[in-house]
Each structure stands twice: as structure tokens, then as C-alpha cells.
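FORM 7B: Structural annotation worksheet

SECTION A. Query
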Amino acid sequence: MRTVILPSGGTPFISFRLMFETGSADDPPGREGLAALTAGLLAEGGTRALTYEQLLDALYPMAAGIGVQVDREATVVYGTVHRDHLDAYYDLLRQVVLEPRFDAKDFLRIRDDQRNAIVAGLRAADDEALGKEALASMLYPGQPYGRPAEGTVAGIDAIGGADPASFHRERYARDRMIVGLAGAVPDPFVRRVLDDLAALPESGAPRGTGPRPDAGDGLTALVVTKPARACAISLGHDLPVTRAADDFYPLFVAGSYFGEHRTFNGVLMTKMRSDRGLNYGDYAYVESFVQDGSSTFPLPNVPRRRQAFTIWIRPVAPENAHFAIRLAVREMRRLVRDGLPAQAFEETKEFLASYSRLWVQTPSRRLGYAMDGAFYGRLGLVEELAARLPGMTRDEVNAAVRRHLDPERLRIAIVAGPEHAGAIAEALASDAPSPIVYATDTRPDVIEEDCEVAVEPLALDRARCRIVPADAMFER
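SECTION B. Predicted structure
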């Protein structure tokens, strides 16, 4: 077992992160969603000795919990507790990992919840997430990376009561595990944890070869229809660069310059929200990004063997969808062609050097980043940036952008009302002008630029633009 131990005498808390390198990429064909269901039973299914209700009752006096998150490549069991309750808390955590209950009643409850998360949640009520998952389905068609970690409706329905226990036995193994502890960790306690976890199988079932991206050339669009007053749009293409590669770090700087998440530092946010008021947010990423709760920060422990460059256009009015896509593509073309301006490059480096420190404010988050570093064979992301940013050059960043980003192979996913879908698809395919009309006074330089944006060529063939109802997405 690999270990990441970050002791600290400045806190009375101990944080646990037990990361297993298994996720929805390991779902058996026909039972898509099994990894997530297994993780759900760990989080909300009790232990051999305790029902879930009894487990909650035992945790309540400690003001602590045991959480589980699952993604394509990793499942993490995590929690934080005051040192006064360490022994009692750890005994519960140990049972959750080593002795899960897998009760039939809990299985049915969690399977129903997981199915509803797709049917009543993702497809019906979360347009932004639906757009992102629709984009993933275009980047990795017919593969685990191309569907939600929750699986598919048919896959969830096909999972039998004995399947989670089998998945746990075959995939939760020591050779796939990174053990993380941070905070007020007593030295003998680490040995105790490792001795207990030695009860897991030594090795897990072999992993697959990893995702294979859609290799098609040219822009491709997918319009997903559902009742919607606005259009949520996601664009992107596959990116074979992860934190394991040297090129990732200059690309990360470029991504921050282009569209740092929920800040006004990015080009997209300036052009689309500040200058034009199109929507409330426009961001870009060079790796999978999951927001950590209500913060603006990324969730750690979402590592992947392959990444994607993506642009999120938060919902815009249907009449502005074509214009918004054109503007994003135009700015990406400009980024690749011209690179980062000298002043913007220096400002972005300075911003990231400070902002990235906020990502590791707690022992648990520091631990998460350090464990991600272990996954990729690097330091944690914040440490890597601190080491690399001072010596990074603008030429290095712009060269990485030209090597890896290509606006001419973007995939475009649009969630739109059925009454607008046909018009949007035809407009994209015809390259018809898409002028924008403002309800308030707008700066003359913006209006002048709009004339160019409105005719920015996309060259998207009609045969490469599909319309699919949301109810058909992730059905099987």
C-alpha cells in the first residue's frame, strides 16, 4: 500500500482519505453504475455489526461523518474527527471499509436513489451537468468516460444484490490503494491502520486499457432537448496530457488565463459576462473539474488517466446560443494563434501563485492534493505550481497551447428546449450570421467586435449535428 502521511501539531483534528484506484471505468458491461452503487453502500449501508441507522447514531456524538466519493478512476472514503474521538471513530471507519453490510434493503434503496439521480436529477433538473455529461459522451462514445459515474438506467436496473459485494472483493485491494492521514496523527496509529488494512486482498482485478477518444476531425454538435428556458453549453476535446506530464503545468496556466473557475480573471468571463452580460459565468479547464461543495475550489481526488480541455458556457438565452458558441470558438482560436500576451502571462502567474494556496487551507484538502500527486507520480498540484511558476516562460506556455489545444476539433454539447433545438442545429450547420441585440447601451468597441463574431465561421457539417431527447441519454 502506498501511504501519504502529513502530520501537523497545529490542529486537534485527524483527517482520513483512503483512495482506491477503482471507479466507474471498472463497471462490468451491462451493469454500468456498479462502482457507484458499491460506494453508496459503503457510505449509507452500515457495517456487518451496525445498521446504517446505528452507524449514524454512533457518529453523532463525535460531530463527524464518513463520506465516499466515486469518479471514473477512483473511489475515496474520507472523514475528519477530533483526536479525542480518534479510536472510536477509526473503529467505525475500519468497519465501513473492511466489513460493509451489503444489506438487501439498503441495496434497493440506494439503487433507486442512483437511478433517480439520472432520471429525475441529471436528465430532468440539472441542465449544466447534463451538458457536461453530454459532452463527455461525444469525447468517449460508448465508454465509461462517456457516461456519468452513476451509470446508465439499464445498467443500474441490471445490477443484482450480490454484485456490490463481488465488486468490493475484486476491486478494493491493497495494490490499488493510497492510504492518507493528516493532522494530529500519533505515530503508532499509522502502523495500526496499515496492519488493519492488510486484511484487504493483496491485488485487485486487472484494469482496462483506459479511454479511447473520438478521433473524428472537424467540429461536431449534439443538441439535447428537454424543457429549458435557456441553453447550457459545453465545448471541448480530448487531452492526453495529465499532471504526470511536464506540459500540463504550462497548459494549466493557459487555462487559468482563459477561464479560471468562478473568477473574473479569465478571458471568457470578461468577454462574455463582463462585456456582454450573456450569462453568469464562462470558464475553461485543462482537466476534469468538480466543484467542492459551495466553494469555488476543485474537489481533490478526481484523478484520471486521460483528461479533456473543456469550456463551460453557463446558460444563455436561446437566441444568443449561436453567438455565444461563436465567441468562445473565436477566443480559443485567438489563444492558440496569438498565445498569452506578455502582461497577462505575468499577471496569471502571480494570480495562480497566490490563489492556489487557498486550495489547501485544510489538512483534508492538503492530504487530497498530496494523494493526487502520488497517483500521478508527482508532487501535489499546489507544490508543483509553486516550484514551476517562478521559472516558467511565456514561450513555454504558448508552445504547450499550440501543441495540445485545437479549436477545429471541438465537440459542442447544447441543452435546449425542443422548440429551439431545430433552429439552433440549422443555424450551426448553415453558418448563418448570428447578430446579437442588447437591451441596454453597450460600448462601441464591443458592438464593433460583435459584427465579426456574428459571422465567425464554424464549418460544422449538418451531418455532424445531432438532436437527441434528454430521456434517451444514458438510458443504456
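SECTION C. Observations
The longest strand covers residues 307-316. The chain has two domains: 2-197, 220-472.

SECTION D. Sign-off
Analyst initials: ____
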